[in-house]
Amino acid sequence: MTHVIEQAEALEAHKYNCSFGGKLIFQKIIRCGLHVVFHHVCSNVLCRMKATVSSDTEKKTLNQLAVLGALATGSGFSQEEEKFSVMNVQYMSKEKFACSEKIASGIVDNCAQEKMLEAINEEKRLAQIRGDVDADGFHYITVIVDGGWCKRSYGHGYNASSGVSVIIGMLTQKILFIGVRNKVCLICLSISKGRTKERKHACWKNWNGPSTAMESDAIVEGLLYLESTHGIRCTRMIGDGDSNTIIKCKERVSYGRRILKVECANHAVQRYGRALQKIQLNAARFKGVEGIRGRKILKQRMLRLIKGARNVIKVNSVKNHNKPQKKVVLNLIEGLRNLPNHVFGEHNKCKETCKRKKLEPDEIVHPLMRSSGLLHAIDSEIGRILVACK
Fold this sequence. Notes:
Elements lengths: L1 H16 L6 E9 L2 E8 L7 E5 L4 H14 L4 H10 L7 H37 L8 E15 L3 E13 L5 E8 L3 H7 L21 H17 L1 E8 L3 H10 L7 E4 L1 H17 L6 H31 L6 H19 L21 H7 L2 H14 L3
Parallel strand pairs: 4-7, 7-8
Antiparallel strand pairs: 1-2, 2-3, 4-5, 5-6
């Protein structure tokens, strides 16, 4: 806005400074996407001075930023054109959108590569400080891996033709690698069907396998890239319960046998929640008066069990990060094992920070959950799901 006001003031000043007593009048408007330039010329034929008022300092910047904003919010040309038409603002042409998208994508890609390189060097520096260097001279680090592709069901299975995977440094919490897999190139498809003439273009197709294998292949590519280019080995991988990824890593990466899979806390708690629901609905196993009452209590307090598990993990990962790892793991296991007792009214094993420790134990709920077998079943799921993936 300041840029436009300054130009308008310069136009107004001309009628006072013109030697022939003329003033600048509007002549024409030239549009380039969202960038607009108003051309003015002096009314006196002896002066004929020309001046312009532009909507932005640089012609391409506004269009590129508009396209970048559209892509960042998941929109495309059609959605943006409709949105601007509602505001009665003329939008850029489809060709201009495509041109700006190509330029903006190149800038974003270069910026992303620079930031990932900085993150890789930072992870390497931290590994050097810790002394995490193996006998071969490679720095070994812990990473978080994840990936996915769109999957919907309209009465039949559907897998998207594109997928993405990322590798994130555990300590820096920054992205180290991004891998994309595309099964289709729209331009190649259009050429093959005879809709457009064959022409040179940037083809994004790089995958012919099934969508389910996209994640593991991209992560393997990232591990190989970090090892060969930057001398980094990812010996600990935190991820979801997808066993296919870790299997492919062990098969195709040179140090695969040394890779330790650590399940993501969020996915582990989700599995724990589903296991509790199955226990609560298992009327055949927990039957009789005690079973019915116990399953009813479990339904009422299930959310507390799930939230409690998240809290125990959070407390031990944040507050105890400076303590020896073995001690932290033991504290975590102790907290998870004691969680059902705490939720069902038994606080003998709770720590001093527990606000209910001084209260009398619940002589109805806790004995009922124990005698019905529900407490043992819950403890078994904690050991199978949460403690096993510590």
